[in-house]
Amino acid sequence: MTVPPSSPPPSAAADITFTIGGFAGNPALEALRDQAPDIFAQIGGYYDAVLSPAPDAENGLTLAERALVAQRVAERIPSPALDAWYGALLAERGGIGKAALDSPRVRAMLDRVALVNEHPDFTTAEDVQDLFAAGLTHGEVIALSQLIAFVHYQARLLAGLRAIGAPR
Amino acid sequence: MTDQESPIPSHRQVTFTQRVLDWQPWLETVDEIEATPEQLAVVDAIATARQGRAYWATLAHDPGSLRARMALYGNILSGEGAGRGPRSDRELAATATSRVTSCVYCASVHSRAYSALVKERDTVQRLLDDGPGANLPPRERAVVDYAVKLALHPEAIGPADLQPLRDLGLTDLELLDITNAAAIFANANRLMATLGEARAPDR
Description:
Chain A has nine helices and no strands. By secondary structure, chain A is mainly α. Chain A has one domain (about 15-165): Up-down Bundle (AhpD-like).
């Protein structure tokens, strides 16, 4: 497994997949990125939108909460590389204190992480109401949902790229 | 179909099908609770080209992530740059992932798209009916096996999982297309199946 750098850059853009995956210098994957630079740029755009949105687009979820949620999703998938990456990002963003971790808001978000990870097809309308009951807004519920879903995408993208770029 | 009064979410009662389904959100859409101009613009831009406005109008509560995701999603499923693989492989991977993650709505849209591309509907119907163990031709078998493993056991994926596709002559870029299609449906399934439910349309 590739150990990610301890200090992720604040903004990701087009290189984020290679940075997290440790793919720089891999000839097959470098060639692939040269063939489809648009896709890698769009992946970076999605990463920024869920992990590092502009201040006017944060939609309620703090940057530390975003890193925490991403780390917990990665831990559950499990994706060790993403778990380490988002753990470092959380630390860089100051972490989440114990009081906040125990708050109804953060607990509801982490319960949602567990539910969507293990039983996406078993969730109900009542589960969404649990998020509203913990004080989340519509914007926060969707930002949270997109963030969880993004990490699921990213874990599979990285796994596939590792296999494509493996020495043959 | 009696989806009233049941303790089981109704999307679990809709069987996998290529028929057109409805999707009912579990939260108010931006159309229902006073959309901002930015939200309306992003929904209108997507909903002119794609069915299912309620879904886009639900995700538009966070317009920035919706806009960024749709740029990637559209390219993954429909991009046709030099060397890109057949769209049918991507729709099949999307369907296989949706079948094993149990997103009935996603599976209906993308199995239908696959059938339209290959002008034949029985192959993907077997996947819907019988699941990943369905009897499939070699290329479809290889795409489905890879997509299913990526959906269920992503960290266990290795070069051996790509070998059947490589043996069929697929290039790295074609493998990326299938990887991306499978991966973005691990994402799409978790949005659609957790923010609303599939329903058989009213007849």
